[in-house]
Write a structure and sequence with these properties.
GO terms for molecular function: methyltransferase activity. By secondary structure, this protein is an alpha/beta fold. 31% of the residues lie in helices and 29% in strands. The chain has a 7-stranded mixed β-sheet, with helices on one face.
Length: 190
């Protein structure tokens, strides 16, 4: 059972995706992730992009904690339907539509979204079957889409080697929680 940990919808139970098609972020990792993000001051009022959203638990947690907007991008029908249920739950609690679900492949979504749209926080939790090259291709598509001071968080298996990040992006933190590793990145300062 997954839940929203804190904020306006804190304590609410989220719907999970049945089967083995998704790998939900554990509450322990989610709590540590959001503790870090809040200490960096990037959640409140942020425009958040949750790529490979699965059930949307990371994105709806962001909305519950004060993000201005959250875009959940998920290609699998069943997972996108669950993400929509969880978005509806949080939107009802907030009293407005903060969370939107986009049923799309990540690459397709980034190609067709308005060119002037930017995000303050990008959460990427791709399936472990997505190779490092695939992760880096998606990150490359984000280059012109990150607001000043943006943070990108990439979640991978702790057994995966660290990708070779593009020169325009710097890793400023790296945290390991059991089988999960989080890399925190920000645009490099010229």
């Amino acid at each position: 059972m997954t839940r929203i940990i804190a904020g306006a919808a804190g304590g609410s139970t989220l719907t999970s995706v049945d089967g083995n098609g998704t790998r939900p972020t554990t509450d322990r990792v989610k709590e540590a992730l959001f503790s870090s993000l809040e200490s960096y001051g990037v959640i409140h009022g942020a425009h958040v992009l949750d790529l490979y959203a699965g059930s949307g638990s990371l994105g709806v947690e962001s909305a519950s904690r004060g993000a201005a907007t959250v875009d959940l991008v998920e290609s699998a029908d069943r997972a996108a339907a669950v993400a929509q249920k969880n978005a509806d739950l949080v939107n009802r609690v907030l009293g407005w539509t903060a969370v939107r679900v986009h049923r799309s492949k990540v690459e397709t979504y980034l190609e067709r979204v308005a060119p002037d749209l930017t995000w303050d926080l990008v959460l990427m939790d791709p399936p472990y079957t997505v190779e490092a090259d695939g992760v880096l291709a998606v990150i490359g598509a984000l280059e012109a889409r990150l607001a000043e001071g943006a943070v990108v968080v990439v979640e991978r298996s702790s057994r995966s080697p660290e990708p070779e990040w593009p020169a325009w992006l710097e890793r400023f933190a790296d945290k390991k929680y059991g089988e999960t590793r989080l890399w925190f990145l920000e645009p490099a300062v010229d």
